[in-house]
């Protein structure tokens, strides 16, 4: 068993060394044109020299401040550094170049319908902001960096939101945006892309679910209102009990309260008729009780 394990480890190690050596050879030979390639380049330079006044306009190219140019010479990238901004020189017969925009690009994620973890059908859309930080990788490693990022953002949105409950989806949008940004940034790193920001724009729920949630919210509000009203009645009864105890201890307090009530009624413009009643009569009834 020990010998088998050691032999397997040696084979894996040798395989890794072979892969690394192949990668090293490929990196080392990248950009080399060979004898025939250099012959074509020299012939192109001679042709440019012969027709100098005319071909100079075909050799000089300009890229803007926010752009970079990736130059291919006979199908190979000549330099691991893009050209620009400003003026640069190419050989018309053997060179070709691709302009890459380095500005931040934004695009809308179309509404995606999916099932949440608690089996609720939801439609969600969003917006993604990204930019190209490595022009060579965005041209050499992927056929269409912008389209690939759009498609990947749609699938990532469905995969991330499919693991969330409806309550988490409605309350934790910032956390979902951060997790989507990290997933997209990691996936597009090999393409020379940097995902700067991901935002969830709108969450659309089914009409039946909206009605059910509205009914639930209304019922909870009514329940809270009844609880508050009951608590108010309880506090008011306690206050009235304490007031009655204070008035019973001082008979003059009842007379003052009576006069204060008459003053309040008289201050308002109404058709209320007041019949004064002697307090002594009320005191006789109170003594009989």
Automatic annotation (TrEMBL):
State the UniProt keywords alphabetically: Membrane, Transmembrane, Transmembrane helix
Query: Which residue intervals define the domain Band in the entry?
Result: 58-217
Location comes to: Membrane
Q: Does the keyword Membrane apply?
A: yes
What sections of the protein cross the membrane?
Answer: 36-63
A Gene Ontology cellular-component term: plasma membrane
Q: Name one Pfam family in it.
A: Band_7
Family stated for the protein in its record: Belongs to the band 7/mec-2 family.
Record-given protein name: Stomatin (EPB72)-like 3a
> Origin organism of this chain?
Mastacembelus armatus (zig-zag eel)
